[in-house]
Amino acid sequence: MPEHITAERTGDVVRITMNRPERRNALSTAHLAELLSAFRAVAATDARGVVLAGEGPVFSAGHDFADVAARDLEGVREMLTLCTELMRTIQSVPQVVVARVHGLATAAGCQLVASCDLAVAAEEAGFALPGGKGGWFCHTPAVPVARSVGRKRLMEMALTGDVVDARTAERWGLVNRVVPLAELDEAVDELLARATRGSRASKALGKQTLYAQLDRPEADAYSIAVEVMAAASQTAAAEEGMSSFLEKRPPTWTD
């Protein structure tokens, strides 16, 4: 049984919850390994969506310094490699992944939010890359954050280490929605429902192709997108989608 997380499925959605409130959901190696295992397990199911949440007052405080301080260079490298594998797995699973951010998300916790496909935050939430005002710079957390907010805003977050409030994070593109805490679950469910409608297989291919072409030169991005989209036109989902449109009827998805 997992010690640091819970995973529950309701209908087509799996809710993965970080459950180390006494440690502010700090990401120890064991915690990272459990999250990675949970996402890999979900990937093999027919679930359509995943909600990533956290128990306690904080979404995630980032890497667990007690774990880091006990490791030598190779040990820290192994931990960061595991963390990177988790982030990339979140983006490679066929399900749509939404971060439910109710509180502070710092360092690798902010990295988690940026690595999810979508994010909904409560007004009380905050986001930070605090290494900039400390002794261990947020090198790896900055990777997905940069791809969400752009260079200048990334530099401000990384160099100052200051907390960015939820409304600013929404304006900068780090989260999709900001709502009152009492409305957070409803907003997460509503966005996930809209993001998971349609063919599951088509959505999975679409998500993986988007990540494959992002940040590539435009010509390379089009090369990838053209080949995948051409191949996808021959799938059952595409044929049903086009037939239902032409025949003016609701589509019937078999997946």
Overall description:
This protein is of the alpha/beta class and 255 residues long. 49% of the residues lie in helices and 17% in strands. It has helices at 29-43, 65-69, 73-92, 108-115, 142-149, 151-160, 166-172, 184-196, 200-213, 218-232, 236-246; strands spanning 5-10, 13-18, 49-54, 58-60, 96-101, 104-106, 118-122, 126-128, 164-165, 177-179. Strands 1-2-3-5-7-10 form a six-stranded mixed sheet, sandwiched between helices. The radius of gyration is 19 Å and the shape is globular.
Provide a concise account of the structure shown.
By secondary structure, the protein is of the alpha/beta class. The chain has 11 helices and 10 strands. Strand 2, helix 1 and strand 3 (49-54) form a beta-alpha-beta unit.
> SSE order, as H and E?
EEHEEHHEEHEEHHEHEHHHH
Give start-end ranges of low-pLDDT stretches: none
> Percent range for helical residues?
40-55%
Task: Report the total helices.
Answer: 11
Shape: globular
Q: Largest beta sheet: what is the strand line-up?
A: 1-2-3-5-7-10
Strand content: 15-25%
Gyration radius, to the nearest Å?
19 Å
Mean pLDDT: 95
Instruction: Please outline the major beta sheet.
Output: 6 strands, mixed
Please state the structural category: alpha/beta
